[in-house]
Amino acid sequence: MVITAQQLWRDYDRKQLPLSASEILTREGYGCVEKYVYYNGEAGTDGCTRIFAKLYLPKNAAAAVVVMDDVQNGVESFDPLPFLKKNLAVIVPDYAGETDRHERFTIYPRSLGYANYFRDPACVRAVPESVKRSCRYVWTTVALRSVTLAESLGFAKIAVFGSREGGHQIYKTAIIENAVSCGAVMYSGTIIDEPETPDNVFLSYKAALDNAGYCPHLKAPILIQTPSNEQNSSLDYMSGLYAGAAAGKAFLSIAPRAVDGIEEERIEQTALFFERVFDGVPMPGAPTVKARGSDGSLYIDAAVDSGQEIAAVELFVARAQTVGAYRNWRSQQKEKVGTDEYLSRVEVFSASLPVYAFVNVVYKSGIILSSEVLSVIPAALGVKASPLVQKRLVYDQSGGVTEWVGKELALAPGPFAILGVTSADNRLSTFALADERYKGGPGLSLQLTAYSFIEQSLTFSVTSSRGFTRFECERKLSPGDNWQKLTFSHSDFRSQFGTPDGWNEVIIFEIKGGSKFLINSMLWI
């Protein structure tokens, strides 16, 4: 039985088989040479894997990046430009295997057919009798053989980058392979949910393939990037990976008040991180947060590294919600108490429920580093709860965009030059209704002031804490010379399961339109 990551990879030799690389297409593109290639991967009992990859090779590139994109994406969908701008070669292997969607793909022998994602997408949740018969083991060998390909092309400096399912292979590659200079992941939280009654097979799987078994042994520095509200609630897990990593080998970067859509900004940061490592430029020290109680109040102490020029320091706090996907992260007022230190008094409304916090440091270089996510029960520190005052006004435009989650949030003018919040993809969501201070009670209705530039129907939805069920309703907005008031009862939202029992169980409120709309205010009446 395999019980450690080291035991799983102890006898693996990525150079044992010849690459036997063959080019099937070469052309100019992106200001560099583009190539389609096949090369040998993991051998099965009935043959050898032929890995398919797309290469982007700038002239005089000094380093290369192996990209393990999300398993559902084809090699053509990855945008290499952020890396090419840093004069980095890019190698994007396919590891999902056979599919009808793409003209070219990696060919696994029949004995390794369990690595064909599109033939059986459930493979990502499978726990086989042997960890070596897991798709994730085979996918990691694809990453390792791609490192070998990079070496064969003459690159001595090699980075590895993975997104979502592809990121799980990066944690492994960064400890297995001495040739890797650095790595980065985006999203890529837990591999598989733990069964209620784990058996020896599952425990072996967790020990040998789960990311937590790799981070304490990282050989190369790795940048771990995640949105604060990813729907698989992986923030706490990824914070734990960072906290458990070998000293100085991991950096955490959290996109606050975000569910997804962090790709563009964070891939730019990834390219900058790789460039710094390759050039030997040190990263700033990671920020830290600590909680303490004093005179019955809760205080957060934050420490940052000001050795490199800082553009902003932000402290984010959430209360009570143990499910990470639905935490209402709010920017917290703080006071600078030293060159590198900040202090914030955090109001507590329930001493027995957790308070969460993290600090983000935005450096002028473009690097954004986060602290570990702090979780504390106030009562354990002698903190007493303050009286809870329910607030009728949930949001108005004077609060900017901080109550909302969306793509490229902005305030835009509507009738009478009054501002409202909007987003680039015409979708807005907020976690404010789950906040203790803003929860709706019996007999209340939620009123929104909204405006649309064209006639359209907006879909409004709420997600209930009872089974995380989503309920929807539609309202029509007509353009005109004034704002419209829309009023909702909890019973207006419906699904196949009926209606929510009340506003008090709503943990997320979402609005989706087909065209631009503005929200000016939201309050209980």
Note the topology.
Layout: H1 5-9, E1 22-29, E2 32-44, E3 47-57, E4 63-68, H2 81-84, E5 88-93, H3 135-152, E6 157-163, H4 168-176, E7 180-186, H5 200-209, E8 222-227, H6 235-243, E9 250-255, H7 263-279, E10 288-294, E11 297-303, E12 310-319, E13 330-332, E14 335-336, E15 341-346, E16 355-363, E17 368-370, E18 374-376, E19 393-396, E20 410-413, E21 419-422, E22 427-430, E23 446-452, E24 456-464, E25 470-477, E26 484-488, E27 506-512, E28 517-524
Parallel strand pairs: 4-5, 4-6, 6-7, 7-8, 8-9
Antiparallel strand pairs: 1-2, 2-3, 3-5, 10-11, 11-15, 12-13, 12-16, 14-15, 16-17, 16-18, 19-28, 20-21, 22-27, 23-26, 23-28, 24-25, 24-27
Helix pairs in contact: 3-4
Write up this protein.
The protein has 525 residues and is an alpha+beta fold. The protein is built from 7 helices and 28 strands. The strands form 6 sheets. It has a 9-stranded mixed sheet with strand order 1-2-3-5-4-6-7-8-9, with helices on both faces. Strands 12, 13, 16, 17 and 18 form a 5-stranded antiparallel sheet that branches. It has a 4-stranded antiparallel sheet with strand order 10-11-15-14, with no helix packed on it. Strand 16 and strand 17 form a beta hairpin. Helix 3 (135-152) packs across helix 4 (168-176). The mean pLDDT is 92.
